[in-house]
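Below is how a single chain appears once it has passed through the pipeline. First comes the sequence as given, then the structure the pipeline wrote out for it. We keep one example in the README because the format questions we get most often are answered faster by looking than by reading.
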Amino acid sequence: MVIGRSASLERLISLGSSPLGPALSSPDEVPEPLWPLLSQKNGFYAFESALHIFPWGTDGKEGAAFWNGDDLWIKEYGEPVRDLTFFAEDAFGFQFALGKNGFWSFDPETAERELICRNIAEWASLIIEDFEFRTGFPVMHQWQQANGQLPAGRRLAPAVPFFLGGEFDARVMRMKDSVELLRFRADIYRQVKDLPDGAQIKLRIEP
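Resulting structure:
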């Protein structure tokens, strides 16, 4: 059954962990389109940590200010992310962002971006209605059953990048530091972005 968009937002908030950041008192503290979400719960994990929403108003490594810092990983991509503000990620470190005209998904392996909805209520509805696909929950659930809870600041990644045939299978996933994973993927993107279709790829892969 499909539930209303406002109900989806409330449902997502109710499914989340305790807030990761301090309570917010003014819309001026966050990007205005995110206020309906963050004013009720300032950052949280949901779906067994498969979805990670960054808190605002904190200097910690879990915070949105840290994650969107120019000297972290964003500079490694350049133009494809220049006008995006990242506010959440899935189990594999694929990003959700606020940008021109609405809310975007961002594939850090290929730097492809897609406009997926107009506002936060629609975004919450997308997540709730298809959380297994949108968050990577099945893989996260299976991986944590075998390996224990994923620590904060970590995401899952296959040994072979997804765009080269890596599998969405918990058995091939490795736990990676979130920042280093994005930097690694940015390096892959820079290696292949100018290659013609059908070109053979020989990547410099981390050990």
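The first strand starts at residue 44 and ends at 46.

See the next section for the split statistics.
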